[in-house]
Amino acid sequence: MSSNVREFDYVIVGAGSAGCVLANRLTEDPAVEVCLIEAGPSDKSIFIQMPAALTFPIESDVFNWKFESEPEPELHGRVIGQARGRCLGGSSSINGMVYVRGNKKDYDSWRDVGVKGWDFEDCLPYFRRMETFEDGRDPRRGGSGPITVVRSKADHPLYRSFLQAGQEFGLRDAGDYNSGEQEGVHITQANIRNGVRCSTSLAYLEPALKRKNLTVMTGCLVERINFDSNAASGVTLKQKDEQKEVRAAREVILSAGTIGSPHLLMLSGIGERTQLQQYGIDSRAHLPGVGADLQDHVVAPLRFRTPNGVSIRRQLNTFGRLKLGVEWSLFKTGLGATNFFEVGAFFKSSDEIDYFNMQHEFLPFLADFQSGKVAISDGFQYFVSQMRPYSRGSVTLKSADPTHKPAIRFNYLTDDRDIGEMVNGIRRTLEMANQSAWSRYRGEAIDTPNLSDSDVDIAAWLRTVANTEHHPTSTCRMGTDENAVTDELGRVHQVSKLRIVDGSILPKVPSANINAPIIMVAEKIAASMTR
């Protein structure tokens, strides 16, 4: 066999939130040889490991694919950036570390659309398996899993005002929102271990690296999936301008993410036949759902000034950042050990909604991105996002060249129901921001609508500010209908020895930040492969 051809049992493409889980679980059997392939570099950077530095990897060309959408038709043609991790740990190495499982009804709805084995009670054992919750094990929470989950301190006055204002509005204190009912205000849980980001690279990959049956390749762009007849046989990749082939005796597993996995399928001849032919790609399997059904949480910021010195801004000036860095470097404590998203809420946009459909994330300062840097000022901001959008987007080819990024169309707010829910959610958020709990701290609103504004005016404002929560899913979704791409175990329809395990196979986007659900999915499918 050529030195440029290597063979393993499993070849995993993408060392992200799912890929690291699979690499760990599959290599628990010493007889199984696994190759994990990552396009980006190692995650050994202070800007990844320090929770408070989360803006740096997001803005980085090294750790972030920095995808961009096509002009969005309902957002005045604005191009929306989409952050996806490009390093060991993938998006778990660059995200906001907010730990949310999602609602029981989310997973029960997967079962109801024909994806067997995915209702909440089926998923719960794997949520428990993946986590070590700081309050310990109980029937709903895990106590000895790889991902460390801690409660934020939430001891700043602006955090306390957020929680109080929500309760004055009528929301309950949700307590452990990952165990009981989610709806209400809460102190956020985060995947942070001893002051360090607990990515899947730290939690799953690092312990597995000492195993002789795991090979990790970084800096490798996978160009296509190879086939013997109808069975995936491996991948062709490029590493430092050298083309190599990695063969898979058992399976090729794509964990390249909601954008990367459908892109690689299409480059390899799996997708909508007519579209592939436009780019000179021979069709291997006509699966029109590849790249379709793209879903994401749309978000709008509501921003308010505060009196000088109230927000965390003063602690983030030049001296404050120096102090933060020294304290974190020496002790892994202080502001450097927080992701700043320490409180949040889940609530209904209207009383007619079956269960909560809106989320609040919150920051105790104002942050503006200017020329790649973050300018901090006094204030606070609510982030209002819709949990179960009706609008659907797509990932399609722009070129048959694997170095060219695909065309991404989110189609935010193209369904009027999304506009209605967001407008109502913004209006309820404005009511919360007007509660007496904010009377000491709330200053002028900044580019934020008023409660007296009409729905039409709020919708018009929304189109100028709406953005992404960076929670894309469902472009290779599980199912049995004609647009489904994978079965209930992530196996790609119409071919063999090819599986997808990442956010692209979720049938619907959960009412949650998606990192924890994706890790759960990887744990569940890995368990089915190792029984």
Explain the overall architecture.
With 531 residues, the protein is an alpha+beta fold. It is built from 13 helices and 27 strands. The strands form eight sheets. Strands 1, 2, 11, 12, 13, 14 and 27 form a seven-stranded mixed β-sheet that branches. A hairpin with a 2-residue loop joins β9 and β10. The protein is globular, with a radius of gyration of 23 Å. It starts with a strand and ends with a helix. 54% of the residues are buried. The model has no long low-confidence stretch (mean pLDDT 96).
Q: What's the alpha carbon Rg, rounded to whole Å? A: 23 Å
Uncertain segments: none
Helix content: 25-40%
Q: Tell me the strand percentage band.
A: 15-25%
Major sheet details: 7 strands, mixed
Q: Give the N-to-C terminal Cα separation.
A: 32 Å
- What's the number of helices? 13
Give the overall silhouette: globular
- Helix-and-strand structural type: alpha+beta
Mean pLDDT over all positions: 96
Number of strands: 27
Keywords:
13 helices; 7-stranded mixed β-sheet; 531 residues; globular
Describe the structure in brief.
This protein is an alpha+beta fold and 531 residues long.
Write the layout of secondary structure elements.
Blueprint lengths: L4 E9 L5 H8 L7 E4 L8 H4 L5 H5 L7 E2 L12 E2 L21 H9 L7 H11 E3 L13 E5 L5 H13 L14 E4 L1 E2 L1 E2 L2 E2 L2 H9 L5 E4 L2 E9 L2 E9 L2 E13 L2 H11 L2 E2 L1 H6 L6 E2 L11 E7 L13 H14 L11 E5 L10 E6 L2 E5 L2 E5 L2 E7 L7 E3 L10 E3 L6 H18 L11 E2 L8 H11 L1 E2 L29 E3 L14 H16 L1
Parallel strand pairs: 1-2, 1-14, 2-11, 5-6, 14-27, 15-16
Antiparallel strand pairs: 3-4, 6-8, 7-18, 9-10, 12-13, 13-14, 17-22, 17-25, 17-26, 18-19, 19-22, 20-21, 23-24
Helix pairs in contact: 1-7, 1-13, 5-13, 11-12
